[in-house]
Amino acid sequence: MKSALTGDVLTIFLEGMLDVNTVNSISNEMENLVKENSDKEIIVDCSNLSYISSMGLRLMLKMRKLHKSKGFTLIEVSREVYEVFESSGFTKIINIKKALQQISVDGLVMLGSGMSGKVYRLDDEKTLKVYNKNWTLAGVQKEQQTAQSAFILGLDTAISYDVVRVGESYGIIYELLQAETFDKFILAHADQTEEYAKMFAKFVKKQHSIHIDDESYRDYRQTMINYAKKVELYNEEERKFAVDLFKKVPEKDYFVHGDLNLGNVMIQDGQLFMIDMGEASKGHPLFDLAWIYYVYVMKPTYVPSNISPRELPKILWRTFAQEYFNTKDEKTLVHYEKVLLPYAVIQLLNWTLFVKVQAFFTKAYEEFLPEVMKNNIEPLDF
Asked: What HEC string does 223-257 produce?
């Protein structure tokens, strides 16, 4: 029996037939998993479960009773297996969800892509975000729940409809009328770059003004500390530097997107919306600002760019910073950039935990990390 732990969610995968011949062989293993993860939400993925008998039903009931403190959900249940649960009354006892709708991206126009997946136009009213294959269903469902929660809290984010299957991956359907990613929109209107950079800054500042009191949101500061402790690239001195750096950040409860850049913002009728909410958390705005600084200032220096004009990213950043920090004073802007630099570097290197290590990670590690470690860390004063 396979299982996967993603954050605070344990996913258990059931396969084949769950009957008198197989229940005993998995009962102890499943019980141990449930007990060991009593503080986690448990998802039982039944996408490959073809049959369940009364013995299997009793096992599911036993696991549900054993796991009382957190959520216990059966997902991807086929129509035939769902009918067994429903006719026996189990759908009133256990949270059981039918198998997801299957969607193909053949013939769909891709609107954009990022580290977590690709976004397609599904029709004139909807877009489809397809996640990379390393994303579990639990992780995708968590992102949909976060997007729904963010919308309710008043954040400018797309309305999410449903989680679906796309081949061997998962996706989320979003409602966005005639929308396109903001990065492509700006490239098509390069002569108005400064105007749209200001628009982006005002949008980001508005999101950063929203306090999050929802306990389901992670604390981004603590998340970054936890990630830094696991990065294989670091030696012990570098690891200590990374952890201590994040500990310097004051604890805040503002909204933090976690991967905020123009590719994760869409524009519709002059209004901006955030997408890709998988890392949405609460914390200090510093983290989003550092990531924006990385994308538009640091990354273009060592990753070949096909953006034309080539100076566009730096124009975007400087105009954005002037508007966000409400200053055109050069010394002040340089100071803010020095504040953001080390956090941008460490956040980037933290992503080596989830993204297959590519050459630009190594280059960033070799060129930027020694620089930020030898320089004094500028005081965080915003």
From this structure: HHHHHHCCCCCCCHHHHHHHHHHHHCCCCCCEEEC
